Amino acid sequence: MKRGVVVRVVVALTLGLAAGAGMAWNEYLRKPAPEALALPDTLIPLASPEGQRLLAESGHRTDYDELMASFVPQTRKAYCGVASAITVLNAAGVDGAPRSASALFAPAGVRLSPLKVSFSGMSLRALAELLRAHGADAEAFPASATDLASFRDLARANLGREGDYLLVNYQRDQLGQVRMGHISPVAAYHGPSDRLLILDVAAHKYPPVWADLDHVWQAMRAPLNARTTTTRGFVVVRQGDDG
User: Fewer Cβ in 10 A, N or C end of the chain?
Assistant: First the structure.
């Protein structure tokens, strides 16, 4: 092969790699740009008059103030678990709770890497392990391991008492949003309408919303992907014994 051809091939490959790296950076590693997306009629924004009425009437909003005071939005496309973990660790008052993603991954026992999570997110099990690495008591439950009535009872009890928190992992399109797996904290339950208040950590595109509990349940029942029957689910978080 002539030298000129070789040079052109090398240059083309270099430019291709640079372009690919640039696309990956923009898609997975940089802070998402604000992009307010439309909500379906089935979801009630917290900021709306109806959303505020539901909050005022809720008898199960013990976690609301702490979660709102500690809330942080996700800073990368797949960092919903990261933002949810930081939010709930600080809301629970865990000693030395991290305030940033770098601090969240810092403990020696954490096996997750920021880069891996940036491209593939994290599982329920990995999220619970990450929370435990910071001294919290965290237990993951796939939705397939329980039922709707049991989850409703658990959510009502959790949101009606101090000391524990609830994170849900669900498939967005089951709630009428853009298809994507997602994790966020739950801040309240409204019994008469049977709705949960989800504090969406993807704040760049969705606000906190009241969602029908049955719809949330179905969204948690969705398989992780087409290759498995393992479902999404939820994590119960408490301050650990050393907190």
Answer: N
In sequence order, which ranges of the chain are alpha helices (DSSP H)?
Answer: 3-24, 49-57, 64-70, 80-91, 101-104, 114-120, 124-133, 148-159, 213-220
Residues in Cβ contact with 93 at an 8 Å cutoff, skipping those fewer than 6 apart: 66, 239, 243
Tokens of 170: 């669900």
User: For 146, which DSSP code?
Assistant: S
User: Which residue reads 């009630």 in tokens?
Assistant: 44
* Domain residue ranges of the chain, discontinuous segments joined by +: 38-239
Q: Is 17 left (phi over 0), alpha (psi -120 to 50) or beta?
A: alpha
Query: Which residue, among 63, 115, 7, 8, has the nearest Cα to 239 in the 3D structure?
Result: 63
Write the single-letter amino acid at 123: S
Q: Record the pTM.
A: 0.87
14-32: per-residue pLDDT in tens? Answer: 444 444 445 544 567 889 8
Here the tokens at position 179 are: 């298809």
> Tokens representing 188?
């309240």
What size, in residues, is the chain?
Answer: 243
What residues pair up with 167 in beta bridges, in sequence order? 185, 235
Domain 38-239, classified CATH 3.90.70.30, yes or no: yes
